[in-house]
Amino acid sequence: MADTPNRSVVRAFTIVDELSENGGGRASELATRLEMPVSTVHDYLQALVDTGYVTVEDKVYRPSTRFLEVGHRQRHRFEVVKAVRDELTAVAEETGEHVTLLIEENNQAVILAVQEGSEAITLFAYPGARMPLHVTAPGKAMLAHMDPERVESILDRDLVEITPQTITDSDVLLEQLESVRERGYAVDEGERIAGMVCIAAPVLDKRGELRGAICVCGPESRLDEARRAEIADVVKRAANVTQVNLDYV
Amino acid sequence: MADTPNRSVVRAFTIVDELSENGGGRASELATRLEMPVSTVHDYLQALVDTGYVTVEDKVYRPSTRFLEVGHRQRHRFEVVKAVRDELTAVAEETGEHVTLLIEENNQAVILAVQEGSEAITLFAYPGARMPLHVTAPGKAMLAHMDPERVESILDRDLVEITPQTITDSDVLLEQLESVRERGYAVDEGERIAGMVCIAAPVLDKRGELRGAICVCGPESRLDEARRAEIADVVKRAANVTQVNLDYV
DNA sequence: GAACTCTTTCGGCTCTCCCGGAAGACGCTA
DNA sequence: TAGCGTCTTCCGGGAGAGCCGAAAGAGTTC
């Protein structure tokens, strides 16, 4: 944690972030948005283009496919992605819903794989999509198996409210985590997306280390008590099989 | 094209590249490989971690899932990805082979989507994977519809030989491009991967602008003359449907 | 063709990156 | 446990590189 992290590096990635959020932009646009001199932004964009991580076309700059490349290469190195693969499709087939594999990174839940069942709702879910831990079933599933100190430090911060259902009381969350450990799965009811219910089970390896979570999402209307129980079983089984695969590899 | 592109930016991404290639590394490792002082590398790594684009665990640094995020967001903005979606699965089902969608970026062919048929050979193909244009069917399909001046400048450079079959003679390539335009599809026979045949059709929009290429790859043994012709038809149809979808959107 | 906007170039001042050196952390061996 | 080797982390002063104002160039609009 240096006092002053290399400013150029930070600025470069700030520009990348800005480009990514808006899907691209022109030098002057960025300059105003980031409150930097145009010439400075211009210099950075040149440098970024030089590296190949940004492309220009008609003065519009965009993140290049290099990001995909680096991202996917890295993704392949997560053993859990391979270990879960068949189970993910199996779960999608059995439930017909939207199924994802997530991991925890920097106190956030990040999607690594998506598999859509036949009835799956179209969600804005893609590899790399991230969300706070406390607002989702997979997040809670993972929190339940993280180091208590880290959990505490995470819950101590502002628990952002994303929907009216989002749980922002850390005591309530701690109770839920306890129940996750007992039942082996977590549920969220419209806590991240209104009207959407998610059921998730944590994936642990034989040493008990957290490796991710498998999550099924569907519309409230379709998921009554009985169906939720069914899905919970499917998800738990998938997590279990994945663990076995992990330990084999 | 500034004379001296911001050194910090270039260095930062050099480090990212190195991390990506080796799937992560320690400060001292990078320092030796990149021939930089350890302390310098350390400073950069700190800054990169600060941005969230690199993570550390047990002193091992890795590109974070941010790259996936940026990459995928950008991918979604390519209309051709949506336009081709159903066709890609259709082609995979019909042929049973390995099907990909590629685009051209910075004089390279880049995979944007992969769909594996039931018999598909396992290829090291993932979104973001890149390859020279002249060594692949999709590359040739795209070259055939690029600005002649650009084509010339690309073919004028060193035509890297990847397999003994790779075509490194620009005149031969130019002839092939002509035939691609006539027939509507391109073929490569072990020019990128020995023993592998690929058949690809370019995707153009109504203005005739190049938007990408659809590619089917399979083992030589399975693809005799007749089957190649079949696949060529399937691929051409898929490209055509995609064009229609594109023009609709 | 004048006025405006946005991109690109230029260059000198100043700030910040750079890296040697040293301290600290960790692991290994005896 | 002490001692040694390796790696990470911290520190600070010098010099080189980034920064940005200003102006020129490119492209558009009316």
Automatic annotation (TrEMBL), chains A, B:
Domain HTH iclR-type, by residue range, is 6-65
Q: What is the protein name for this chain?
A: IclR family transcriptional regulator
One Pfam family cited in the UniProt record for this chain: HTH_IclR
Q: Which Gene3D superfamilies match?
A: 3.30.450.40, Winged helix-like DNA-binding domain superfamily/Winged helix DNA-binding domain
Query: InterPro entries, from UniProt?
Result: GAF-like_dom_sf, HTH_MetabolicPath_Reg, Tscrpt_reg_IclR_C, Tscrpt_reg_IclR_N, WH-like_DNA-bd_sf, WH_DNA-bd_sf
Question: What are the entry keywords?
Answer: DNA-binding, Transcription, Transcription regulation
Please provide the Gene Ontology terms (biological process) for this protein: negative regulation of DNA-templated transcription
Q: Which domain of life is it from?
A: Archaea
Domain named IclR-ED: residues: 66-248
For molecular function, the Gene Ontology terms on record are: DNA binding; DNA-binding transcription factor activity
